[in-house]
Amino acid sequence: MIDRDLTPERELLVQLQKGNRMAFDILYHRYATRLTIKLLQLVKSEEIAQDLLQEIFMKIWQMRGTLREEHSFAALLYTMASNLSLNSYRAAVREQNRLMKIKGSESYTHIEEDIDFAETTKVLNYALSTLTDRQREVYTLHKLEGKTYKEISELLQISHSAINQHLQLANKQIRAILKDRLPDLMLSVIPLLITSCLK
């Protein structure tokens, strides 16, 4: 019998691999709120965030047989959130371009073509390499692995204020490098690209 509150996540993942619907529902309710907050930070739309949330867990159910309990389920969810958010952004850009082309706007530009994602990833990785060891460690844990301040604090034995300071300095450094090396990159998509490209 699965207990909604007490069953360890590893056991839930084992049961999910077997197609246990209750295990799936429990994992959904454990992560839905946190994942929605993450998605809202990325797409800035409650409607899109909810659609992506449902898509993520639909994919989780479809791939349940390949899940491994020894891997971080949270990290998998946040990676999927980042990838789907970026796909959503690209689709929105394509639609915007299509509508502008239909209207015959002289100011029409292919925004997506201006973003060389390979080059962007290269610059983002360079920016990450310029951080101090501690800044990079905290940034990676929080931004790329989706760990909370509490989890990072317990893992690294540092205070929440120290974590916040490291993140602020890291964000400032990364943004400065992006603005210098990718001047045409829209500032509004920097947070999304940082989360999606730096893996």
UniProtKB/TrEMBL annotation:
Gene Ontology MF term list: DNA binding; sigma factor activity
Q: Which residues form the RNA polymerase sigma factor 70 region 4 type domain?
A: 126-172
Query: Keyword annotations for this protein?
Result: Sigma factor, Transcription, Transcription regulation
Which protein are we looking at? RNA polymerase sigma-70 factor (ECF subfamily)
Q: Which InterPro entries match?
A: RNA_pol_sigma-70-like, RNA_pol_sigma-70_dom, RNA_pol_sigma70_r2, RNA_pol_sigma70_r4_t2, RNA_pol_sigma_r2, RNA_pol_sigma_r3/r4-like, WH-like_DNA-bd_sf
Protein source organism: Sphingobacterium yanglingense
Entry's family note: Belongs to the sigma-70 factor family. ECF subfamily.
Q: Which PANTHER family does the record match to this protein?
A: RNA POLYMERASE ECF-TYPE SIGMA FACTO, RNA POLYMERASE SIGMA-70 FACTOR ECF SUBFAMILY
The segment(s) forming the RNA polymerase sigma-70 region domain are 27-94
Domain of life from the UniProt record: Bacteria
Mind telling me which Pfam families this protein's record contains? Answer: Sigma70_r2, Sigma70_r4_2
Q: Name the GO terms of the biological process aspect.
A: DNA-templated transcription initiation
Q: Which Gene3D superfamilies match?
A: 1.10.1740.10, Winged helix-like DNA-binding domain superfamily/Winged helix DNA-binding domain (1.10.10.10)
